[in-house]
Design brief:
This protein is of the alpha/beta class. The chain has 6 helices and 12 strands. Strand 9, helix 5 and strand 10 form a beta-alpha-beta unit. The model has no long low-confidence stretch (mean pLDDT 93).
Amino acid sequence: MEVYNFADHQSLVNQYMLEMRSVDIQKDPMRFRLNLDRVGQIMAYEISRHLNYETVEVTTPLAKAACRRVADKVVIGTILRAGLPFHHGFLSYFDYAENAFVSAYRRYREKGDSFDVLVEYLASPALDGKTLILVDPMLATGTSMDLAYRALLIKGKPAHIHVAAAIASQQAVDYVKAHFPESTTVWVGAIDPVINDHSYIVPGLGDAGDLAFGVKD
């Protein structure tokens, strides 16, 4: 399984990650959403280089031209709610893609920091033989992504999976490598070393959902 960490490469993703991490810049929710969108667009471009293409003939005003287009059927799957601006970035490039949405959230137990991850809503097209791009800004433990993927399997088995996150913990990356099929590629803006007792990525960037859409009760 290939893991592509943008922090190891010269990419504008690094500039946008800096802005999303900064406690001063991230106070602007619109800019935070825009930066998630931008990272999604860049990741979409990089993923597009790994897809299958076919040659088709098109008619121009002067003659016929042989052009290439994506042959894969792409589905962009997003975990609500923080994933929405991230999803929009991918959809800006894969504008022909089908879309899937999964509601996965933490429900904390009465005592301590332990929690269960619940999946309550799913909307998805058929997935058999398609390329599934699963996007979520935060990959802290990998559990939510895994549950979302397994919930989506009721819609069929994808030919290839791309897991995309703005930021991930090393633990989550290891979890995905252990639990997802070998036909999976992981794309992350940055990988941080640890998660704390609340399962937040450290140093991380905080709660992406709250930063994008406001604090929830």
